[in-house]
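Q: Got a minute? One more chain.
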Amino acid sequence: MMPRAVVTGGTHRVGRAIAGALAVRGMHVLVTTRDAVRARSFGSIACGDGSITALHADITTDQGMAAVCEAAGASLRTLVHNASSYESTPFGSIERSAIESSLAVHATAPLLLTQALLPALRRAREEHGDASVVAMLDIHAMGRPRAGRAAYLLGKAALHGLVESLAIDLAPAVRVNGVAPGVVDWDQQADAAERARYEARIPLARPGTPEDAAEAVCWLALEARYVTGTVVKVDGGRALP
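A: Always. Here it is, folded:
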């Protein structure tokens, strides 16, 4: 049976690159999106030896989570927590709803979805000898904070904590790791001057690409079978002192 994967928020940008990289390695990948129009237009596509299918589901709701579990099937080799909300929240104007929204998508949903899909992950380990969870983190929630993103970084920091916690709770059946990019796909709101300032501080002298992040995810998910509780930084050295 073709191994299966779920990538939340996987119809565009970094999530789409991750889904494509898993599919060309022979996986059937289910990608989720909260956008019904995007899900319909994406549909299902062949990709290498695998395939990618979009599902309209809001993973922050019980109904959306149930839909993902039903569509994922009884055996799931890889779960990638990629769904994110990158909202600017200047200090002094932060509302409770912004904090709760960030925690819902970045921490609460990943925790509950992992818990709900654990039986499928355990079955995949029996079938394929390995099962894994990979969380998409952010180096800026790990000691390089950016101004005006407090609510977002709070959610990502909580997800970072979950990687280590779940690595203990799910061992030895399921490995849990994280990928922490710097900039691998510029936010459209960033202007040229901001980009230039940021890129000048990257030792490898270029921003990353979605494919850079996807390769790290695939390594952790499919190849690094003796690695759990680890965060791989994909930032060109930006997090260095």
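A: The helical segments are 13-24, 36-42, 62-72, 96-128, 150-170, 192-199, 210-223.
Q: Perfect, thanks.
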